[in-house]
Design brief:
Layout (H helix, E strand, L loop, with lengths): L1 H35 L14 H6 L9 H12 L1 H5 L19 H7 L4 H6 L5 H7 L1 H11 L17 H17 L1 H21 L3 H22 L6 H10 L5 H4 L2 H12 L8 H16 L21 H22 L9 H5 L21 H22 L9 H7 L14 E3 L4 E4 L15 E4 L16 E2 L2 E2 L1
Antiparallel strand pairs: 1-2, 2-3, 4-5
């Protein structure tokens, strides 16, 4: 009986100690996650002066204010709106009446010599500039607005094809007027979309920014492939094509955004907003050349599984460590993100092995990191197209690519970009990190014109006399 009592006391003590230990572990885990879900500070308090909402209402009826309309649509489509009761009518998607497709500019924008096409008086896009004058004026106004992404922790869908089409029409009209006007518009467009890329708090905003930036880059690269290029384009081009900065590369806020969404029960929804969001993500994936399941792959698992808090505590600790590691990696210009197993090692399950049937699901952030590396690659290649046009005393292009500096090396390998003398192409090995000779199916390549070789000064011939050298 005495031994039984002692055993009971020891068992009780063990449970008490275990409870204290697990409770402490849960508190530590909650502290780690509370850091992840802290919202960003807003730099713009008045939504009507925020370019983020102007994009939502860009195609609103001419009688409406795009910023006000966009903000009301955003409020109407977020979960906060369904909890509030505002008596006056708010704008909805029905107020977006302008519809512009890429077909209006496709023939000129995608041409081998876009500048020549832009200058043609009978180019198809001229009719669109007259028809959509209101959208062009609005886009020019938007480019001058500050931008603060308020999408953190919310599921909202901005415009897609319409924005891409208006941006093309805006730049094309500038080049149709003059090279100077075109370069100025291209510069403003680049600058603002790189601001959007830097300030993006959601992955969808970051992908949209890259789509427009790459669209501008491909246009610029086709211009730079011509034997003769206006000096204005060359001078401004070097300013536009600086490699991505740390904030532009960073996945910090998009990752935190996904965690916050997972903590909001029922945030996915099954209504029309969910269908619209799915269509928008599909468009982003197609246009941004991402896998079809890219956005599904980064959904964070439910934060409170029915099996209990201790099991979640283990997984939450692993996720907190993993997210912090890949956030830091994304900001350090690495060419790949660490895997979850590299960060947390083997999970110690012990007696709970029967409960934790499998390891935590690893969100696929590498997909989006690789897209950022690819955008950075295109920026560097466009800059090299300009730099190689300058006359040089160095005859070997590979040597010039090695001497230009590591900031213009291939970010996929950390080595100089490659040169195909037969195709006259600069190229990166791309996502597969294999040299395919500049094949655009696998590599990222651009045509390049190499500047003339500077004449080397003649080597002086030593004067020789009968007495020898003098």
């Amino acid at each position: 009986m005495k031994h039984l009592a002692i055993a009971a006391v020891l068992l009780w003590a063990a449970f008490q100690f275990g409870g204290m230990f697990f409770s402490s572990a849960d508190r530590a885990t909650e502290a780690e996650f509370s850091h992840l879900v802290e919202p960003p500070q807003r730099s713009i308090e008045n939504p009507y002066r925020n370019g983020y909402f102007y994009l939502f209402g860009l195609t609103a009826a001419s009688s409406l204010d795009p910023a006000k309309t966009g903000y009301e649509i955003w409020v109407d489509e977020t979960e906060d709106a369904r909890r509030s009761e505002i008596p006056e009518r708010r704008a909805t998607r029905a107020d977006l009446v302008y519809t512009l497709t890429l077909e209006a500019t496709a023939s000129s924008w995608d041409a081998d010599d876009p500048l020549a096409e832009f200058r043609k008086k009978d180019a198809p896009f001229h009719a669109a500039t007259a028809q959509y004058r209101m959208l062009l004026l609005r886009y020019d106004h938007w480019i001058g607005m500050p931008f603060d992404d308020w999408g953190f922790g919310r599921r909202a869908t901005t415009l897609g094809t319409d924005i891409l089409a208006v941006h093309r029409l805006y730049v094309a009209e500038g080049f149709a007027s003059s090279p100077m006007e075109g370069v100025e518009r291209l510069h403003k467009d680049f600058h603002l979309w790189r601001t959007v890329l830097r300030e993006a708090k959601t992955i969808s905003t970051k992908v949209l920014a890259q789509i427009v930036i790459n669209d501008d880059l491909q246009l610029l690269s086709r211009m730079l492939a011509k034997p003769t290029v206006d000096k204005t384009i060359l001078t401004m081009g070097l300013q536009l094509t600086l490699p991505l900065s740390v904030p532009e590369y960073s996945l910090r806020w998009p990752i935190r955004h996904q965690v916050v969404l997972a903590m909001k029960e029922g945030s996915a929804g099954l209504g029309p907003e969910s269908v619209r969001r799915r269509l928008y993500e599909d468009w982003l994936s197609r246009t941004g050349h991402l896998p079809t399941n890219a956005f599904d792959s980064i959904i964070h698992p439910p934060t409170r599984p029915a099996t209990g808090s201790f099991q979640w505590g283990q997984a939450a600790g692993a996720y907190a460590a993993y997210y912090e590691a890949i956030i830091k990696a994304s900001e350090n210009h690495v060419n790949y993100l660490p895997g979850m197993q590299e960060v947390v090692g083997t999970l110690h399950r012990g007696l709970f092995d029967g409960v934790l049937k499998s390891r935590p699901v690893e969100p696929g952030w590498e997909i989006f990191h690789a897209q950022l590396v690819e955008t950075d690659t295109r920026l560097r290649l466009a800059s090299l197209q300009i730099q190689l046009r300058h006359p040089s005393a160095q005859t070997a292009v590979p040597t010039r690519l090695a001497e230009v500096g590591s900031q213009y090396f291939d970010p996929f390998t950390g080595l100089p970009m490659l040169w195909s003398p037969t195709q006259h192409k600069l190229y990166s090995v791309g996502r597969d990190r294999l040299d395919d000779g500049g094949d655009p199916t696998f590599d990222i390549s651009v045509p390049a014109v190499v500047g003339q070789i500077l004449a080397r000064p003649a080597t002086p011939v030593p004067l020789v006399t009968r007495q020898g050298r003098r």
